[in-house]
Amino acid sequence: MSSAAALLLRPTSATTHPLLHQSSPKSYFLRLHPSRRRLPVPRLSLTPTTASNSNSNSSPPPPSPSAPSPAPAAPPSLFSNWSPPRAIWRGLSALLLAGQVFHRVLTGRVHRRNLLAQLRRVGPGSAGVALLTAAFVGMAFTIQFVREFTRLGLHRSVGGVLALALARELSPVVTAVVAAGRVGSAFAAELGTMQVSEQTDTLRVLGAHPIDYLVVPRVLACVLALPVLTLISFALGLASSAFLADSVFGVSVSIILESARRALRPWDLISSLLKSQVFGAIIAVVSCAWGVTTHGGAKGVGESTTSAVVVSLVGIFVADFALSCLFFQGAGDSLKYAMG
């Protein structure tokens, strides 16, 4: 054995010449005899090294090839996700439906059997409610001003005021409101139910156009029946007002009728009939348009019915104002004739 090996194997104390010296809790160093030159020996790790040592001794893994990034999506345009409110496109559909109905009436594409059925429904079916409403409206209007007119000595003009108010405003508007609540709601509910249950598609398969079969008869029925109801409502309202004025306020029926005859002009009745025709067209077109654009099942049918009645009433009042401004622009002399 050589002297170098003997020196390495010779026992030494741990304090002077250690063979194995624990430098730290996590690594050991191998040291040679002091007489020999120290050789660099790699550190042998018996326990897991710290994060700093592992980072310093280990090289970072090579970067993995990444997939090519997709091309950036084009930014959405300003109106890509925009849709018009439901009220707007329903209003446009009502205008389009009115144009189609007008064209089909001019070309004679009218289902006569359905037209007669709808006339019976709108006319006699709504007469009771319309006449009862007109009678009470006329009596309520009489109570409001007959007492004041008699105190002022103007009892001879009571009939003229009643006749003008009923002919120009009360009779056509009240009749249209009753028709909107009774007939318009029924139209919207029926067509809405047919739309959500796909019965309109069945009509197309059978060769019948839904507008010719369903919409045109209803519009014509309202346009033709409402003027008749308005005339009957006017007559009943004037009669009930005259009866109340005679029985309560002592104004003779003959005086009221004579004053009404002097005050009324043919144009007053004609304007009342024209108003009722416009109101009937508004009720039918709006109700049918709201019905055929229904979706969402039973809930959608209910919403369409309510919305159709509300929009019809608003349309009636707006049209009444516009037609009144058109028909009665200047100051008239009707009351002067009524007081003569």
UniProtKB/TrEMBL annotation:
Ranges that cross the membrane: 127-146, 224-257, 278-296, 308-328
Region described as Disordered: spans on this chain: 40-76
InterPro entries: ABC_MlaE_roteobac (IPR003453), Permease_MalE (IPR030802)
Family: Belongs to the MlaE permease family.
GO cellular component, one term: ATP-binding cassette (ABC) transporter complex
Main location (coarse class): membrane
Composition-biased stretches (Low complexity): 41-58
Coiled-coil portions: none
Gene Ontology molecular function: phospholipid transporter activity
Superkingdom as given in the UniProt entry: Eukaryota
Composition bias, Pro residues: 59-75
Entry annotated with the keyword Chloroplast: no
Membrane topology annotation: Multi-pass membrane protein
Keywords: Membrane, Transmembrane, Transmembrane helix, Transport
Protein's cellular compartments: Membrane
Lineage of the species this protein comes from: Eukaryota, Viridiplantae, Streptophyta, Embryophyta, Tracheophyta
Organism per entry: Miscanthus lutarioriparius
Official protein name in the record: Protein TRIGALACTOSYLDIACYLGLYCEROL 1, chloroplastic
PANTHER family xrefs: ABC TRANSPORTER PERMEASE PROTEIN-RELATED, PROTEIN TRIGALACTOSYLDIACYLGLYCEROL 1, CHLOROPLASTIC
